[in-house]
Amino acid sequence: MNHNSRIETILIVDDAKINIEALNTILCNDYRVLFATNGAMAINIAKNQKPDLILLDVIMPAMDGYQVCIELKSDLETQDIPIIFITSKNSDEDEEMGFQLGAVDYLTKPVRPATVKLRVHNQLQIRHSEDLILHQALYDSLTRLPNRALVLDRLKQILVNNSRGKTKTALFFIDLDDFKKINDTLGHNAGDQVLIAYASRLQQCVRDGDTVGRLGGDEFVIILPSIANHDVARTIAEKILEAFNQPIAIAIATESMKIVLTASIGIAISPDDGTDPKILLTKSDTAMYQSKQNGRNTYHFFTKTMNDHVQRRLELESHLRQAVNKKELVVHYQPIIDIPSRSPIGAEALLRWKNPILGNIPPNEFISLAEQTDLIDEIGQFVLHDSCQNFQRLQQQTEKPLFLAVNVSPLQFRKNDFCNIVKKTLENTHFPADLLEIELTESLSLSKHNNILETLESLCQHGIRISIDDFGTGYSSLSTLRKFPFTIVKIDRSFIVEIYKNKEDQVLVHAIISMAHALNLKVIAEGVETEEQFAFLKAENCDMAQGFLFSEAQTIENFSAYLNTQIKKSQ
Question: What sequence ranges are listed for the domain GGDEF (predicted)?
Fold first, then answer.
């Protein structure tokens, strides 16, 4: 039957006209029916017409049905067409042979009309379901564009075909500039509208035969299978940038809003930059980041000078996947100081990575890599468990309650089981819930994910503190602090650096402290390195501080020694 407004096509193959007429009478009211009276004719029609299903007789002159089935199943163009044998050969061996050759069903003559209708309908239903599942596996559900898997498969086929000649292939990696702000401030429905609109723009910028795909998030790719030179790719890149500079309209509630986003584009050319699809994708990604660094709203071709970055990234990812098991990742602890008493009352857990080959890897480099791969959950859970375990032992040694602040990636926090992971960690390590502080970036607090508030409230009900990190660097406001159950606000270090001489920073820090205190929130100032900064914060009644003025981040052993020294000083 017709499943999706398209009339399905059945090919009947039989050398007896009376059999063809009988089957046609059964099926012609529901399907488009084609006929073939011999094997060669059937194969030709199958290749040219691509029927949805074939009803195939076995006993035919010149080429029997079994041989026709073998030919069809060995050809890429026809191998997926389902075949039902309808034949007078009714032995178990004959039926077994039919299924072994790839038939989906086997009917023996004479056949009843109701049976034929039902078997045909069932097989078309199965084919329709398989097609739907395959489509969902290969196409992005939002934009209807090919997804990463299909893009890489197409790219692989194109590169194999082009390897036989001198044809060049261009791969574009396109990232929407500042798309995150749309999601964070207007919500994910608005973000989805933007992605759909710009996906359509990209399709309008390319030629027939080019592929536009979505990798995920705000990342798109374009494959130009055949280009004569770089100028062709350059022309399309400029066309994309121009198209993106035109506003799009999106609906917010009952209102319409115009949005303009730019794009950063990276381009890799094969075979110049390689012939492996994943390497080519990585290089186009690298070129895109060069566009980001050069001001955005531009494009760059991959160059060999960028190759060091590619190799570094691949090497880092390879080593990072083994770092946890090899115990290369170590949690360090930076003291958090109570400003009035100038004594340590807690610490922030900060991850460090020292690789025996690559040396010390900066956190901003490997954390972002972990978030881009599938490693952030494993690493995040390691940090939470290790730091809670260390601090529980520390409490027993010092007999002093110290709170522990742990940074959590937005990707980790949004997982449905995050709350359970935290609670289970506390149970396993016996660390008190009321001494654990979960640090979240302010961008997460602005996200419109429905479960964020629910997760925060669940953590708070368990006694866990919640802090908003890097406050003041984005779009947070009084309404943000009132909406979510935060207990601590952390002032970003960028406002502390010149606070004793920069009037604007002084006004801003004063406002943050006053606003937080009005909401019964505590305030921690990050990046305190001088006595002048500390004196200003103390005068403004800031609650806590951390920074190199007091101590850098240390291993748990050194942090324990530091605490003992501070305790002796206070006695």
Answer: 167-304
